[in-house]
Amino acid sequence: MMKAISCYCSLPDSMSEKDVACEFHDLLQVVLGSGRLKYEFLEAALELSDRQWHTYKPLDQLLKVKVEQALISRWDGFDFAFAEGSIIVAAKLGLVGFFEFISSRSAGELSPDVAMEIKEALAELGADISDPYSGM
Q: What is the DSSP string of the chain?
C-alpha cells in the first residue's frame, strides 16, 4: 500500500542520498506492479525528486531506470498535468531515457499543449539532460 502523499510532503527538505533512495525504492515497489496510482505516484515522485535534487548527487542508475519505467508506463501524450509533472521529475533526476522517449513521440501522439511543453523543456534543459546540476 502506498503512503499518503502527506507523508512525502512532510519529509525534510534536506535528506541524505541513502534516505531518498530508500523512499524511492518503497514508492516504486508499490507502483511498478500496478497501473493504478498514476497521480499519487507522480505527486510522490515530485516530492522525492526535489529531495534528491537537494542532495547534489545523481540518483542511483538502477533507480533512474525504474523511475523512467514508471513514468513511461503511465505516459499519455494528451494528459498535460501528468506530462508537465513527469518532465519536472525527469529534469531533477537527469532521466535521459525518459527525455528520449518523449522527444520521439509523433505529433499524433501528443496534444498541442504537451508538444509545446516538451519543446520548451528540451530548449531550457539544453544538450546535457543527464546532469540536473548543469549550469549551476
A: -PPPHHHHHTS-SS--HHHHHHHHHHHHHHHTT-S--HHHHHHHHHHHHHHHHTTTSPPPHHHHHHHHHHHHHH--TT-HHHHHHHHHHHHHHT-HHHHHHHHT--GGGS-HHHHHHHHHHHHHH-S-TT-TTTT-
Q: How confident is the model at residue 132 (pLDDT cuts 50, 70, 90)?
A: confident
133 lies in a domain?
no
Q: What is the pLDDT of residues 105-126, one digit of tens each?
A: 999 999 999 999 999 999 988 7
Determine the structural domain holding residue 119 and report its residue range. 7-125
Q: Is residue 24 part of a domain?
A: yes
